[in-house]
Amino acid sequence: MTQGEPAEVAELIGRSNRLGSDRRNTNYAGGNASAKGTVTDPVTGEPVELLWVKGSGGDLGTLTAEGLAVLRLDRLRALTGVYPGVEREDEMVAAFDFCLHGRGGAAPSIDTAMHGLVDAPHVDHLHPDSGIAFATAAGGEALTANCFGGRVGWVPWRRPGFQLGLDIAELHRASPGMIGVILGGHGITAWGATSEECEANSLKIIRDAQRYLDEHGTGAPFGSEIAGFQA
Fold first, then answer.
1. Among 2, 12, 93, 220, which residue's beta carbon has the most beta carbons within 10 A?
2. Residue 105 confidence (pLDDT)
C-alpha cells in the first residue's frame, strides 16, 4: 500500500487478485470488484465518500491500484435523478466521467452503476462457470431458489448498464438477508459489510452452485451425442 492510500484500496486489490487468479471464480478479464470509503477532499478539507471499482478492460487477477476507477459517490448516485431510461444507456457510461475524483485512474466500466448504487460497502461481480450454469439455465430462477433458499436472489436478464444497477440495488434494499444475486444470462453479484465478508459471500455462491450441479446434474446436460456431429 502506497503512502496515503486508503486501507479500502489495499483490501480491494487483495480480494480482487485472490478471486481473479482462480478461473473457477471468473473468466479472464471478466467481472469487477469495488469498495466504498471516506477520505478527505484535498480541495475542501471535508470528508468525501468514494467508490473504487475495477476499471474497464482490466483483469481481477492482476489488478493494481492504477487499474481502479475512483468516483465520488454523491455524484454517481445523483445520476438517478437524470437517468433517461434504458433506451439511452450509453449516455450514462459517458456521464460516469463527470463523477471521477482526482487525476488518473482507469476508465469506468459499464458495470459501475451496480457497484455504486448497491448500498453495501463492498461488492463483487463475477462470471464463474457454476454461476453461469444457473444464469443460463431455462429454469434458472427456480434452480436459484432451490439451491439457495432465498439467500441469493434472481435478477432477470437485462443488458448491463444503469438500469441493471438500479434493479440489483432495489433487490438488495428489499431483501436485507440476501448475500447476492444470480443475474440471468450473465453471472453473479455478491456484497458484504467488510471485504472479507464480501469475498466469503462470493465464494459461497460459487461453491454452493457447483455443489448443487454436482449433486443434481447429469453426465450429458445437453443431451446425448449425435452421430456424425462429435467434437
1. 12
2. 87
57: left (phi over 0), alpha (psi -120 to 50) or beta: left
Q: Are 161 and 174 in contact (CB under 8 A)?
A: no
- Is the distance from CB of 180 to CB of 125 less than 8 angstroms? no
Ramachandran category for residue 54: left, alpha or beta (phi over 0 → left; psi -120 to 50 → alpha):
beta
Cβ atoms of 39 and 47 closer than 8 Å: yes
In angstroms, the CA 193 to CA 209 distance is 22
Q: CA 32: distance to chain centroid?
A: 5
How far apart CA 21 and CA 16 sit, in angstroms, is 8
Residue 1 has pLDDT above 60, yes or no: no
Spell out where the chain has E strands: 32-40, 47-54, 68-72, 122-126, 152-155, 180-183, 187-192
Exposure class string for 107-134: b at 16+ Cβ within 10 A, else e: ebbbbbbbbbbbebbbbbbbbbebbbbb
Alpha helices in 137-194 (DSSP H): 140-148, 162-174
Q: HEC states along 154-165?
A: EECCCCCCHHHH
User: 30: which 3 cell numbers?
Assistant: 471478466
CA nearest to 188, candidates 127, 120, 114, 115: 127
